[in-house]
Design brief:
This protein is mostly beta strands. It has three domains: 89 residues; 92 residues, Sandwich (Immunoglobulin-like); 128 residues, no CATH class. It has two helices and 32 strands. The chain is elongated and about 95 Å long.
């Protein structure tokens, strides 16, 4: 019992037969979990059983401490339930490890702190909002979960569901929107309902390109000309409106890009000043990750960068530069943006 296979090695006029031991681990008679386990899922009487030949040097540890064992038919039993109940520490999770002949192997984790094992993933189809990885919650079965979705403008949406529920709402706003959200665990106590923040982040539902610049002000302080970066005096874009996806057929820029209209301005000691000869401009999102834009005006006319000052280059405020200074003016290939701290 406990030997899974046999290897035969020819030697001289005979063979050497080697039996390879098999080690099986069971938790309360079932296969070991493949993911982390909440502490409440392990009963005080729970046993970890190792089935293997007596000649195999094996042991189990919990929180790096050996578990007491007793011999049973074909192996050993370990009182994992007692160890979990007696554990007293602030650790979020603790590992159960198998040691075979000094080789230490992690089997699974026991989670002690209410948490999410991975960031939430959502899907919005029509008005039905689904939590795709609801199994990631680690906590008591009587814990409720509170989801708060807050758009930039307007009222937020608060949803409270029981543990394990995947459909969070069948009446969620269908409009394309970016939300800041929080996931909170709600537990009943003698003093009322206690909340624990599990996660916060941002999520976009619907058409991403419709919302990424909504209500934002972009700050442009860098351009790309012939593969070289050049810093320029800050230029800002606001009143950004999504037009749609447009196909561009330029020599150095072809394909489908998100198209927006916007107004450019700069800051003086007296405040905001718009580029009256240029606005409105057309903005094309070339690379969101790199923050790269193509900007034109007047149905495709390029914007000039003025390097005539000998100090810092700047966006020329008019449509055409003087002919006598033409050598100081250049068309940038791309503009690079960051989100401004100011928002309209």
């Amino acid at each position: 019992m406990g030997f899974a296979s046999q290897v035969k090695i020819p030697v001289g006029n005979g063979d050497i037969h080697i039996q390879i031991p098999r080690i099986r681990l069971l938790l309360d008679g079932n296969p070991l979990p493949t993911e982390a386990v909440w502490k409440g899922e392990i009963a005080p009487s729970s046993l970890l059983r190792i089935l293997c030949p007596e000649t195999v040097d094996v042991s189990l540890t919990f929180a790096n401490s050996p578990l007491l064992r007793r011999s049973t038919m074909g192996g050993f039993d370990y009182a994992i339930g007692n160890a979990v109940q007696a554990y007293d520490s602030d650790a979020e999770k603790v590992s159960v490890n198998l040691i075979v002949a000094s080789n230490n192997m992690q089997m699974f984790d026991v989670v002690f702190k209410i948490s999410l094992s991975e960031p939430p993933q959502f899907n919005l189809t029509g008005s039905t909002l689904t939590w795709l990885n609801s199994q990631s919650f680690m906590g008591d079965k009587n814990t409720s979960l509170k989801f708060v979705f807050q758009p930039r403008c307007g009222e937020g949406v608060t949803l409270i569901v029981g543990q394990g529920e995947k459909v969070l709402s069948e009446d969620f706003p269908a409009r394309s929107e970016r939300y800041c959200y929080q996931v909170r665990a709600q537990t009943e106590t003698a003093f009322g309902v206690a909340e624990t923040k599990l996660y916060e982040g941002t999520v976009i539902f619907g058409d991403k390109f419709t919302v990424i610049f909504r209500g934002e002000i972009l700050c442009i302080e860098k351009i790309l000309i012939d593969g070289e970066y050049t810093e320029i005096k800050p230029v800002y874009a606001d009143e950004i409106t999504y037009v749609g996806i447009e196909n561009l057929g330029y020599t150095d820029l072809s394909g489908d890009y998100a198209h927006y209209t916007a107004k450019l301005f700069f800051i003086t000691q007296n405040g905001k000043r718009y580029f009256t000869d240029l606005n409105p401009v057309d903005i094309y999102l070339v690379n969101e990750k790199a923050g790269r834009l193509h900007i034109s005006f007047n149905d495709g006319e390029g914007l000039f960068i003025d390097k005539s000052s000998g100090y810092k280059a700047e966006l020329y405020k008019h449509a055409d530069p003087p002919q006598r200074l033409a050598k100081y003016f250049f068309f940038p290939d791309f503009f690079e943006y960051q989100y401004s701290k100011e928002r309209r």
